[in-house]
Amino acid sequence: MMMVQEQAILKAKKQFDQMEAAIRQAASEGQRIDRVERDLWDRMLGIARLMLQGYVDLQGRGDLGATLAYEGRTLNRLKSLHDRRYVSVFGELLISRMVYGTRETQKLEVIPLDGRLGLPDSEFSYVLQEWDQSFCVQGSYAQSGQTLQRILGIGQSIHGLEDRNQSMAQDVTAFRDVQPMPTSDEEGSILVLTADGKGVPMRRDSTHDAPAQRGRRKKDEKAHKKRQACVGAVYTIAPFVRTVDEVINEFMRDRRHLQRPSPQNKRLRAELTRPLKGIEVNGKERTFSWFDEQVALRNPDRSKPIVCVMDGKRALWEMLKAHQLKAVCVLDIFHVPERIWDAAHCFCPEGSAAAKAFMTDRLKRILEGDVGRVIGGLKQMATKHRLRRSRQKQLDAVITYLHRNRRHMHYDECLARGYPIGSGVVESACRHLVKDRMELAGMRWRMEGAQAMLDLRSVFLNGDWDAFQEHRIDENNRKLYPYREIIESLYNVAA
Questions:
Q1: Facing residues of 226 across strands?
Q2: Has residue 15 been placed in a domain?
Q3: Cβ atoms of residues 144 and 155 within 8 Å
Q4: Cβ neighbours of residue 319 closer than 8 Å, sequence gap 6 or more
C-alpha cells in the first residue's frame, strides 16, 4: 500500500535523474544558457507537481471507518471514491477521497481528506489564487492571465480571474476588523484625515441608465459615465514647522524640503456608492465612518491633534461636519495657487513676470492668514479695471472659491504648529489606488467588480497583502472544516 502511495514521488525522482542527465548533455554540447534555463524551469514544474501529488497520496483517502460520529449523528462512509480537481501552481492534480454523509444523493457532510489538507472551496489552490490576484490588482485581467500562463503554463479565463477577485474581496472587511493598531512609538504626534473623489468608468446598465448616445457627441460629452469613488487616507505624522517663505519657495521653484517628515502607518481606502445587502450605501458616508473608527482606535484619549486636509468639494466638508470629528480643517494649499493664477491672468499676460509677481504676492498673503484682504483687493481690482465678461466671470469664480473656503485657510496657524496643509497623500492615492488600475485603456466596470478591485488594491497598497492571505485562508478553513479537530484526532489514532 505504501509503495502505491509513493508512486508519484518515485516518478519525481526518476524525472530528477533525467534532468541531471539533460544538464550534463547541455554542458557537453555548450547549449545557450537561456535555453537550458527554460528547460530546467519546465522540468522543475513537472517534478514539483509529482511531489505535491505524492504528498496528497501519502495522506491516504480519508477513510476513517465505516461510520463517523459528528454533531450527535452517525454518518456513513459512502461506497465510491469522489474525485476532485485541484489546480496548483505546478499544474493540475486529481484527488480521490472518501466522503461521509447519509447517502449519495444528499449533501456530503464530512470529507476528511479535504479537511486534513485544508483545501479551498474552489478548484484553484490558495497559492495560485494569491499569485493570480497579486497580478490582477496591478494590471488588467487579460494581461495578468497571460503573464501567469507564460510563467506557469496554466491557462485561465478572464471571467474566472474576475470571479475569483470578487470572491477574495469578500474577506477584506473581516480582515480589516481584526487588524492591530500601531503602537504609540510607531506613530507621529499628529493624526491626519484626508479624502477626495475619483471617477471610475462604469459599464452602462440597461435597466437603470438612459440609452447610449448615438451619433456625434456634444462638446465635453463623454462616451461613458463615471461613478465617484470616495478615496480616504489616514496617517500620523511628526510636526513640520515652516515659514511662509519656505512654502513659497517650494511652490515657485518646485523644490521639495529635504527634511519633510514621512507619513506613518498610512492606510488607504476607496468606497463607491452602491447597493449593499439590498440598501444603497453612500461611499462618502462609509469613508467618514471609517475615519470615526480610526480616530477612536488611534487617538482614543484625543491627545493628538486631528487635522483634516481636503480640497474645496462642499460635499466632503459637509460630511466631515455631520460626523463631528472636531478636526482642524485645512483647505488643501495645492489647489489655491491654481485659483490665484486664474486671477492673475485676468490682469496680466500669461507667462509674464507681472503674473508671477501677482501670484506670489497673493499666495504669500494668504499663507500669512490675510485671505480676507486678498478677497477684498480682488473685488476692488475688478471694479477698477472693468473686465470684459469672460474675465469677470473667471475672477468671480476665484473670489467665490476663496470666500467659501476662507474658514479653512488659517495657514499661518497651521505652519506655526507644524500641521500639514497639503493633501498630497490622498491626491497620490486617487492616482495609485484608482486611476492607475481602474482607468486602463478600454476599462469599464460593473459595480460589484469595481468595489472588489478597490478593496483588494487597497489591501495591496497598504502593505497588508501577505497578512490578508494568511487571514483569509485560516478563516476559510475554519468555516469549511468545522470538523477538522475531530478528523485530526482520528487520523492520529489511525497512524
A1: 201
A2: no
A3: no
A4: 284, 285, 288
Write out the three cell numbers for 148. 501567469
| Residues 146 and 269 reside in one and the same domain | no
Considering only CA atoms, give the Rg of the chain: 31
- pLDDT at residue 495, rounded to an integer: 47
Distances (CA, A) of 307 to 327, 331, 417: 5, 11, 11
Beta carbons within 8 Å of 186's beta carbon, 6+ residues apart? 264, 265
In contact, 89 and 80? CB cutoff 8 Å:
no
C-alpha cell at 294: 480610526
Pair (114, 238) in one structural domain: no
Answer yes or no: is 41 within a domain.
Answer: no
3-state secondary structure of 351: coil
Rounded Cα distance between 263 and 420, Å, is 10
Confidence of residue 488 (pLDDT cuts 50, 70, 90): confident
**pLDDT tens digits for range 94-132:** 999 999 998 777 788 999 999 999 999 999 999 999 999
DSSP 171-187: THHHHHHTPPPPPGGGS
Paired residues of 196 in beta bridges: 231
- Compute the distance between CA of residue 241 and CA of residue 237 in angstroms, rounded to an integer: 12
Domain membership of residue 16 (yes or no) is no
Of 415, 435, 455, the position where a domain reaches its end is 435
Same domain, 343 and 262: yes
Mean pLDDT estimate for the chain: 92
Give the three-class secondary structure for 92: strand
Q: Are 287 and 233 in contact (CB under 8 A)?
A: no
Task: Point out which residues pair with 274 in neighbouring strands.
Answer: 281
Distance CA 179, CA 174 (A): 9
Could you say which DSSP state residue 121 is in?
A: S
Residues 236 and 330 in one domain: yes
Based on the fold, state whether residues 478 and 426 are members of the same structural domain.
Answer: no
Query: Domain check: are 84 and 195 in the same one?
Result: no
Q: Are 299 and 291 in contact (CB under 8 A)?
A: no
Question: Of the candidates 385, 419, 435, which is a domain's last residue?
Answer: 435
* C-alpha separations of 356 from 184, 225, 254, 422 in Å: 44, 38, 14, 21
My answer on whether 395 and 284 are in the same domain is: yes
Count structural domains, the chain. 2
Alpha helices in 30-110 (DSSP H): 33-58
pLDDT band at 204 (very low <50, low <70, confident <90, very high): confident
| Phi-psi sector, 188: left (phi>0), alpha (psi -120 to 50), beta | beta
CA 374 – CA 399 distance, rounded (Å): 9
pLDDT of residue 207: 55
What residues make up the domain containing 478? Answer: 59-179+464-495
Would you say residue 394 has pLDDT above 50?
yes
* Residue 54 is assigned to a structural domain of this protein: no
Q: Are residues 313 and 394 in the same domain?
A: yes
What is the predicted pLDDT for the residue at 3?
63
